[in-house]
Give the backbone structure.
Amino acid sequence: MVRFLCDKAEVSRSGYYAWLKAEKNRNEREKNDLKDYELIKEIFNKKKGYAGALTIKMILENDYFVKMNHKKIRRIMRKYTLVAKVRQIKPYKQMAKATQEHKTLPNLLNREFNQEEPGKVLLTDITYVYYGSSQPAYLSCVKDASTREIIAYHLSKTLKMDLVYSTLDKLSDALGGFTHSEAMIHSDQGFHYTHPEFQKRVKKMELTQSMSRKGNCWDNAPMESFFGHLKDEVDYSSCQSFEELQKLIGNYMEEYNNSRYQWSLNKMTPAQYRSHLLVA
């Protein structure tokens, strides 16, 4: 009967008996997989589904002190149908039309984002978030391209120039007078960054100004990427007041800089990687 059934299933008798013999090992593996799945699922849920195998691996190692191969994590995620959410590419926002007195500047950065020197390449941009009953707020940020750290940001109810002026003031405070000798601030060609007063303040801070080519979001890709993650991970639409939104954004910035491990930063957080570069 065994031979007959093996022939029907197109398997060898030796293979069938080997399968029977390995039942204990299979059960043990299932038990271990389930245990690992519970740990992976806990992290996956904390990240609201926006965590892939590499992110989970880094969190396991840094927060749970658990070593787990990323291939194993992917296998378990497939097995238990944990599918990480993928951000959809959003069309590049239409840039405001500048007046004739506004001056665009060349792309001096040329996508050379990571120069392994904190404070050398600073990226800046503005995005919008909606809270309450679809009320808009505007977030201006400055990101260190080498450490991925958000070193200055300002949230405003309007798009007036004070939005970027306040951001520059906070950047100046964050730098504390220690500006890199080759420091550069890079942006798109938006109205705020071509404004004469903004450019004047940038020069006063001894920063070289660089701009993306017109309509090319890849020239400031790390900044766009950060905004994409923020919009995916922060439930800002649940905020009923501007003050509540400020607190939520502030908590996210703190978590991003100090608790978010990144594979490209040798599995460190931005703050840890900054310290690592300074020591090196």
